[in-house]
From TrEMBL:
InterPro entries: IolE/XylAMocC-like, Xyl_isomerase-like_sf, Xyl_isomerase-like_TIM-brl. PANTHER family: HYDROXYPYRUVATE ISOMERASE. Residues 20-249 form the Xylose isomerase-like TIM barrel domain. This is Fructoselysine 3-epimerase. It comes from the Bacteria. Pfam families: AP_endonuc_2. Transmembrane segments: none annotated.
Length: 276
């Protein structure tokens, strides 16, 4: 089992702290979603002028960067916005070459009042341009089960529309179950052969919040995480199990020192329970 965390959960940690804590808590990789308050990390010295130093730090710590989590959205009807996303993909593609990173996470995006079939056609059209960049940089774009593309059938329809080896799925195990009531077995049956990466979080219903649920440490909510882990193991999944601790968006949740250590312990406990 390979463990990672996204930097969404540690917005105040510098690079040395990120690496030190990852090693201390037993992680295999770090997924970058922002760094010290900047989401476009490729604009920062750590990923531009000083990139070789960053690369050496990760190599010395025997840590991977399995994925760069971009802000790219597949659904847009704006030519300007699409061109901005294409440029962002090129920037992340360059980082993937340096760090030998196989994946870039992308969102489907909100479709508003656009009819679903029309939205799928727009996404497929935009993907034709995005996938040329993915092929150029030899990197796979991962569509996350998120926003208006949480339902596995919607994701499947996009997959069928492009049929590319450079396009796959990031299963956020929380969102389909929590927000659309989708059973994990259905998610896997529909998308399993294209799921290359996973995000993990837990929550419980809390109706007086804007989301209708409260994020919490793993095992303290009611997402069937052990069931999901067993399913992935039974199906031969070999990708990362990445904690997406949304500290940037939800400052009230536990600090990363607590959450990152707890996640590693929790997942290892599940793995040991199944083996024994």
């Amino acid at each position: 089992m390979k463990l990672a965390f996204t930097t969404l959960g540690c917005p105040k940690w510098d690079m040395d702290t990120i690496i030190t804590k990852a090693v201390e808590f037993g992680y295999d990789g770090v997924d970058f979603r922002g760094y010290l308050g900047e989401m476009e990390i490729y604009t920062l010295p750590e990923f531009s002028s000083n990139i070789e130093e960053t690369k050496k730090k990760f190599a010395d710590a025997t840590l991977e960067i399995p994925c760069f989590s971009s802000s790219v959205r597949l659904f847009t009807t704006s030519e300007t916005e699409l061109n901005n996303y294409l440029e962002e993909l090129k920037q992340y593609g360059t980082l993937c070459r340096v760090f030998n990173t196989p994946y870039i996470r992308v969102f489907g995006g909100a479709i508003g009042r656009t009819a679903r079939q029309d939205a799928i056609e727009i996404v497929v059209s935009n993907l034709q341009k995005m996938l040329k960049i993915a092929e150029e940089y030899q990197v796979t774009l991962l569509l996350e089960t998120h926003d208006d593309w949480t339902n596995c059938e919607y994701v499947r329809d996009v997959l069928q529309g492009v049929d590319s080896a450079y396009f796959a799925v990031l299963w956020d195990v929380h969102h389909p179950y929590r927000t659309v009531g989708e059973n994990p077995e259905l998610t896997w049956k529909t998308l399993g052969d294209r799921i290359k990466y996973t995000h993990w979080k837990d929550s419980y219903i809390k109706e007086d919040t804007s989301r209708g649920y409260q994020l919490c440490l793993l095992g303290e909510g009611d997402i069937p995480l052990e069931r999901m882990y067993r399913l992935l193991q039974d199906e031969g999944y070999e990708g990362y199990y990445t904690l997406e601790w949304e500290k940037v968006w939800c400052p009230e949740i536990e600090e990363p020192d607590i959450a990152f250590k707890q996640y590693a312990n929790y997942m290892n406990a599940i793995a040991n329970k199944i083996v024994n």
